[in-house]
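This section describes the prediction task in plain terms. A model, or a person checking by hand, is given the sequence of a single protein chain and must write out its three-dimensional structure as a string of tokens. No templates, partner chains or ligands are provided. The sample shown here is typical of the held-out split.
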Amino acid sequence: MRIQYFSPGGLTKKLKHLNTLIGGVACTRLSQATHVVGWGYRPSGRLAQALAKQHGLKMLYLEDGLLSACSGLNTATHRLSVAVDSRAPYFDTALETDLEQLIKAHNGPKEATAEHIERWRKLGLSKYGNAHAPAPAELAQARAQGREVVVLLDQLAGDASLAPRLTGTRPFERMVQEARARHPEVLLVVKRHPREGERQGWFTHKKGVLGTMLKDERLRDACVCGPDVALHEVLSHASVCYAVTSQAGFEALLWGVPVVCVGHPWYAGWGVTQDLYTPARRQGLPQKSVAGLFEAAFSQYCRYVHPATGAPLTLDAALAHAELQAQVRQATPSHVAVVDAQPWKKKFYRDFMPDAQVRFIKAQEVATLGSSDTVLVTWGQRTPQWEVDAWRKEGYRVLQCEDGFLRSIGLGCELVRPLSLSFDPKGLYADAQTASELPKLVAQPLSEAQYREARRFIRLHRNLRLTKYLGTARYDGVHWAMGQEIASAERKMVLLCGQVSDDVSVKTANCPWGSFEQIASEIKRNDPDCFLVFRPHPDVLKGVRPGETNIPSADYCDHFSSTRSLMELAQEVHVINSLTGVEALISGKTVITWGKGWYAGWGLTIDHVQPDRATNATLEQLVHAAYFRHPLYFDDQSSQFITALAAAELLGQRKQEPAPRSVVMPWLNLLPRLFIKAGAAVYRKVSPT
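The expected answer:
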């Protein structure tokens, strides 16, 4: 399918992954297209319809899906789902649509439908997913007094689904009249549209000001719930719900609330609603169940996509993605104080702790908090461990934060924001002297599903050639000089991976060999015929962190090849406790550790210092703990939390994209690290990107 879009300056130009959602390839010329895509009945959609008819092309009508967004989603550029119809927008019940055909042909809900509906309710989902505030106390008080609550659903003024042929005349006035006539003593609740800030609602005169409809005498004691109030919170108190054509009416049915339709939405006419207006064409429709409508509309009709990776999703996977957003939010503390935060990290602290009230304080201000209800967050060893332990003894919960193991395209010292962070309630995983949560997670057995996840991740990690920092080597592969050395050596290749000398992982590793030169000498003493290659740490090569760059005992010191490429060529990989050791294990290499580390001692590595642990672990246990359960992954483009598998796919995609060019950063790299951070922070603040 070759697609020509028509939405000048509109969503079809801004939304990501539309080609995947529609299932076609975008064309630059109309003459190349087989289909024309327009957004509903907007002017651009009407133009697309006219052009399709003129040129004999097929027309596709695009609309927001029935689960268009979930918590936190950046809806300016992303959607979780869209509705694509070849006949008419799904809301136009005056015409036959693809959705109507699917419902007619549907023989009944599948076994999974009830589970999907239950997950929908459990997560409190809604079409736009951006309202989370609780319902006003007035609703609960009314129910406690034995008074019924009747909900009136507002809609945006000018919405195409409110055309007279779909609603009759003056539908909102009829809604109020019917509701008051049928329920004279109840509490009427006006639920305003969740996106009312973008356009006016029918019950409002202008933004933020109650309009003439709400001044109606029949609404004199009505309770008004704002756009930020969650629909399910309101529906939990409702005895009946009135809708014109709002999708929220169908969501009320999912919550078991009877619905009266003043207009004729897509879910009317099937025997699940009481309909006050029915177009002649829709009379005599077959009777369906709410579950059957849900299955046809949500599972078969709507198309879902992963907001970050753009991979097509099933309804089940889309619900799982929405569930992840809810789980992270539920686990996030409500009050957080970040201690001694670096200015450039403040933005992503807030991103990784959604809905929390985040404060940034100095270490000496902790004593002034006055309450241990606030969760403290520290970064690495910026705060000494003894001070963190003292706060814990005082009753504070302290989360020690570090980068995750799939971090970014580029280095942290270049101020590239992380894709993943680990918040450990016990200690730093890099610090062998603290009781991190990570070893405990490694020791836990896996379920069959977790085992499959780990195996899939291992395959992805190998196939995509992932590392913690991607794209940091000067040469993405093996440098030509290194290649010549290997070819001429004709010996077993051994890779020794350098680390930053002042890193906490090195300082606490209890490594009796004081330098990488001493380790290299020991390797050569034990295996004099090996071809030993030393690869310094990227931060050390850039000159922003201390460490060794050249060691005499190595046969070759490679400053250019990527560590991943060298690791793939080597028969053995030697580390103190570098994460490269884990990446080498994933690649099936023999790994030798020369210091204590969280992934050593499980029977997977050959260890010179790390004692054996109480139990052995499989590679799948190690991978699932380190990449799935310990870190959080957050994609800043879609503003969504993602799984380890999605993070691997996303980094694999971005690895293929050209790196963004900066005029300022290369000059900043010549300065000391402190000035790099200060200068880049200023640059990014004023940069138009």
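For orientation: The mean pLDDT is 88.
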